[in-house]
């Protein structure tokens, strides 16, 4: 119990950089794993808690460790054995809406897991570079004068998820200041792309459209707040930014990651409805409305662009097309 269970795999010859990805079977984590294997030629290790369906196609190229990041003894043993050059920490509770219903679980999964990792690095691998992935939700209640959101914008989180991500960010800064750990923080704005859970608007809409097209659902898409404007970036561009931040970011610094362009949730829905093969109606679902919502949020990415040269490459339309086609495939598979 509690011991790591790696999938047997000998490291590929010639690979000198070892990356450990937490949340490797998640939405962003699976795309990051694919990117590291394809572009960065890393020896990739990953921590998995439960499911791994998103990385089945990569399984022969990965070393997976199954366990619970809330267990500090297990985490310390994994770090000691892997001795990563890079620790890319993506594991998190990421359902903003669900955090209202389960605030303690959200805080526990986001804060306690990171504390386990930081303590393990401090004791077992103090030279490892760690990337801590935060969220735009930590900025919370944005004022008009805050736009676009810069890294020095005050943190005013207004939901349990945002509070937990702010705590992660501040904890990472504290371990840099107190122990000199080699930590870079990023604050990722809204991500979209294939493989995303339907807890998120674009994916929720796409799933409903795909099910309507196959006759599994009545021709009505149920929605929440469509007026909110968000800064959407394709997850495949975002994971490229993660790796650049891990390589080129300044230790102790924080960087906003996003497109820098606000788009309404209504525009997401409109594109997906136009791409459907069916005539579809729209209804507001009170259960999809949050107790508190920010009208508009988008970021200033100049700090990160200055150190990395990163720019998003995939268009908004390409991202949404891929999300819809991904759900069409998933619905057909059952």
Fold and architecture overview:
This protein is of the alpha/beta class. Helices cover 41% and strands 16% of the residues. It contains 10 helices and 13 strands. It has a 7-stranded parallel β-sheet, sandwiched between helices. A two-stranded parallel sheet has the order 7-10. A two-stranded parallel ribbon has the order 8-13. Helix 4 packs parallel to helix 5, helix 6 crosses helix 10 and helix 8 crosses helix 10. The chain is globular. The chain starts with 17 loop residues before the first strand and ends with a helix. The N terminus is likely disordered.
Rg measurement, Å: 20 Å
Count of distinct strands:
13
- How can the largest sheet be summarized? 7 strands, parallel
Shape: globular
Number of H- or I-type helical stretches: 10
Q: Which strand order spans the largest sheet, edge to edge or round the barrel?
A: 3-2-1-4-5-6-11
How much helical structure, as a percent, in the residues?
Answer: 40-55%
How would you classify the quaternary structure? single chain
Please give the alpha-carbon distance between the first and last residues.
Answer: 34 Å
Low-confidence stretches: 1-13
